[in-house]
Every structure is written in C-alpha cells, then in structure tokens.
Amino acid sequence: MVFMVELWVARHGQTEYNVRGIVQGIVDSQLTSSGVSDAMALGRGLAEAGINFDAAYSSNLHRAVETANLALTAGRQRLQVHKWFGLREQSFGMFEGRSEAQRAAAMIELTKSTDRFGVPDFTVDQVAELSHIVNLHHGVAGTENVAAIQRRFNDTAGIIAQRAAATNQQNVLLVSHGAVIWLWLASLGMPMNSASIGNAAVAHVSYDRGEFRLRTYNDRSYVLAGAEQYGNVALG
User: Fold this and answer.
1) Catalytic (active site) residue 66
2) pLDDT tens digits, 210-228
3) Are residues 36 and 81 in the same domain?
C-alpha cells in the first residue's frame, strides 16, 4: 500500500464568464481560446516535470471536465476523468450569471452599516461568506457558508486520497474551481491574504495516513513551462 499520495489540484482554464466579469459558481460557460491553450500547456508542463498521474478527477461542471481532459491529452496521459460533485464550485445563488459588480454592490450594502470589513476590497473567504448571507437574507436556499464548503471539499479530497492510497496510486490530478480551492487551501494553512487562485494554477498537497500537508499553491509554472514553445498563455 502507498501511504503518501500526492494531489495536484488545478483550477480550470479561463472561461468566457471570467473574461466578462460574470459570477460563475455552479452555472457554466465555455473555455476561451486562452483557456484551452492554458489547459493544454498545463498538461505538457506537468508531464515535462515528470508527474505521471495514476488517476484523475474533476468537478462535474463542464469547464473543469474539459480542462482535465485537455491537460491529460496534451500530456499524453490516457486516463478517464472521474466527475465528482464534491469538487464543484460554491453556489453563489441569486448572483449566478450576474455581474461581479452587482454582487459587490450587494455585499457593500450589507456590510456598510456594521463596518465589519471596512472596505469593499473583500478577500475570497469574505466573498464566499457574504454571498451566503445575502442569499439567506433574500430567502434563497441552497448556498453554503465557508465552513460547509471547506468541509465538503476536504471530505471529497479525503475520500479520493484514501482510495488512491489503497490502490497504490501515488499522483492524482484534481481539477476544480477558484473559490473552493482557495478556501480549502486556507484551511490547510495558506495565508488568508493570499491572492485568488489563477486559471490553470496548481496546488500540491500531500496526503499521508489521514493528514493533508500543503506543499505549494497558486503555481502557474507548469503552464508557463508547457507553453514555452507553443505560444502565449492567459495571464491568470
């Protein structure tokens, strides 16, 4: 049995909604041409770094599934992508498909009387929590608070890692989404003032006998390495 499992957790490639500034949680949009290029560069970069995957998982949202498949194909790694609900993005409820500016305005309106956060430059965890609170205030069900998101992702990653350890799988690819990846990594010790997760950026997390250890995060070096001889990549 392999006890140490290496999880390589990547955010999906750039999407049309990312470019247009539209809130994208459980709603989907297509990868842009840059998003496709980044996904392929990611796969090449990981392969060139000698990371050969034994299993691959993604959120069941199309942008994550496509990113995973493109990366594996470009890296010449023939694996089935297992689509898991537990890896999907946070639901932003009433803000899904609306502009980022509309969501920001609602959060500013909610917080200005309490001055809880002071300025409208919210961190990722604040956006996640405030989105949940605003939805509750408007009677919209089905959203998660930060603790629930972290628990869901951690439980899912734990099941995947346990299965990998039990079947001698050492390197596992997970493709997911910006907010949920950030929140999970924060629970593993990533600084709370860390930048948002870039498109196709990678976090390396080790799993050993029930414990996760964060190695690296928000790493775009694999994309850049894989794109060196194949043209430009998106900026994040």
Assistant:
1) no
2) 999 999 999 999 999 999 8
3) yes
Q: What is the CATH number of the domain that holds 75?
A: 3.40.50.1240
Q: Which residues are part of a known binding site?
A: 11-18, 63
Angle, helices 146-166/124-137, rounded to nearest 10 degrees: 120
Range of the domain at 113: 93-137
Q: What is the pLDDT of residues 7-65, one digit of tens each?
A: 999 999 999 999 999 999 999 999 999 999 999 999 999 999 999 999 999 999 999 99
Out of 6, 66, 89, 96, which one is annotated catalytic?
Answer: 89
**The pLDDT of residue 65:** 99
Residue 100 among the catalytic residues: no
Please indicate, yes or no, whether residues 203 and 104 belong to a single structural domain of this protein: no
Torsion-angle region of 200 (φ positive above 0: left; ψ -120 to 50: alpha; else: beta): left
Q: Which residues are annotated as a binding site for substrate?
A: 11-18, 63
